[in-house]
Automatic annotation (TrEMBL):
Gene that produces this protein: tatB
Chief location: membrane
Biased composition (Polar residues): 124-133
Subcellular localization, as worded in the UniProt entry: Cell membrane; Membrane
Organism, scientific name: Chitinibacter mangrovi
GO molecular function, one term: protein transmembrane transporter activity
Subunit details: The Tat system comprises two distinct complexes: a TatABC complex, containing multiple copies of TatA, TatB and TatC subunits, and a separate TatA complex, containing only TatA subunits. Substrates initially bind to the TatABC complex, which probably triggers association of the separate TatA complex to form the active translocon.
Name used for this protein in its record: Sec-independent protein translocase protein TatB
Length: 159
């Protein structure tokens, strides 16, 4: 790491022994080792922080790519959907025109001149093809609740 040879380390050790003395040498060596350990932990922490930041930036880049792909997919889905809705509304308008030509509205005096204080009631008759088919299906279904009585329960069923 520091590119120090064995001879250079031996020279440093001899100089330290002469300067510090043999009594204080173990305490100084222990302090130097503790400082070196702290330095190694600091370097490792910096490395892990840098690596974490790099991963976060990579994840942010991947997130941006995924968001761009999501927007592209949404566009590919929504554009045909909008075109289909427009075509459906055009077909519905055409159907309304052809349906209104087949069945001209009834002209009676009561229907054409409603009372002025009357509130418009909702129509019970189906107007569209889907309403007509729903009404015919409803008429074909048997009434499952016809046999049930709406009266109070017998006393044995009460709790």
């Amino acid at each position: 790491m520091f590119d120090v040879s064995m001879g250079e380390l031996l020279l440093v050790g001899v100089v330290t022994l002469v300067v510090i003395g043999p009594e204080r040498m173990p305490k100084v060596a222990r302090t130097a080792g503790m400082l070196f350990g702290r330095l190694q932990r600091f370097v490792n922490n910096v490395k892990s922080d840098l690596q974490r930041e790099m991963q976060a930036s990579e994840l942010a880049q991947i997130q941006q790519e995924i968001e761009a792909e999501t927007a592209a997919i949404k566009n590919t889905i929504h554009q045909p959907l909008a075109e289909t809705r427009q075509a459906l509304s055009e077909l519905e308008a055409d159907f309304q025109l052809t349906h209104s030509d087949d069945h001209p509205p009834a002209t009676s005096n009561a229907a054409s001149n409603p009372p002025s204080n009357a509130v418009a009631a909702p129509q019970d008759t189906p107007t569209t093809a889907s309403d007509k088919s729903a009404a015919s299906v409803h008429e074909q279904q048997p009434d499952l609740f016809a046999g049930l009585q709406a009266g109070p329960r017998p006393a044995s069923d009460r709790r």
